[in-house]
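Bench log. Compound arrived from synthesis this morning; before running ITC I wanted a structural hypothesis for how D-malate sits in the protein. Inputs:
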Amino acid sequence: MSTPNGITRRTIEVPAQGAHAAATLVAHTAGRGPLALLLHGYPLDHRMWLEVLRSPLAARRTLVALDQRGHGHSPAPGDAVHSMERFAADAAAVLDAFGAADADVVGLSMGGYVAFALAAAFPQRVRSLVLTNTRAGADGEQARAGRDAAIRTVLEHGRAAIAQAMLGKLLAKDADAVLAARVRTMIEDTPVETIVADLRGLRDRPDRTSLLPQLAMPTLAIAGEHDPITPPAELQAIAAGVPGARCVVVPGAAHLVPMEQPAAFERELAAFWA
Ligand code: MLT
């Protein structure tokens, strides 16, 4: 289905596997050329990539912004846990559906954890890697307790409470009201069962530090100068660990660089994909 803004929607059916239910995934695409897969953060959806989808990058890549199961237009299939490995297998199914042997993969935060899982399981399918506002390490004890507390919060007080708790950390202090409203809407549109399943998957994800030296594809790490969730040191550590990788710190942004500083983000991707 094509929408008036030139973004096309494609639906992909993924069969049930093990403990994971079958899922219907919706991918939002724009552009032409080799495929670039955009993996959103928690608890967001493809709308965090709208600036990228509408950018001149579309002249150089077929940009595919996936709604992970339970997010955006992809219905929640009822899984208790959304493991990063499950999301990665879904991403691989999307590449299959597009007939793409590989893709330039761009992952933000949770999307970065998924990109690591994809690169670990199917390295030949990741032509290059952009890791933005993410980290390689697993959750420590305190972070795991924080995930359990967030599960209780969303079950007791709903999605608005999650949005309220997260907004101040996702965006830089001087973020404009329209941007903040867009992010709030995305969070409040995410079903409670998705938020709970995501939080369990985030809590239990593996440490990917030992993967870093094995990553042979070109890799770029992008940090937000004021990101309190995944501070620049996390992205600098990723770049230090991956052979040949480099790190860029984007001024004036917090955790959502592609939305907060879209021109800088686009410039970095354009240079990296050159
Ligand atoms: C995200 O933006 O995906 C989350 O903040 C990731 C996390 O909480 O670890």
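What the model suggests: The mean pLDDT is 96. The longest helix spans residues 141-157.
ITC booked for Thursday regardless.
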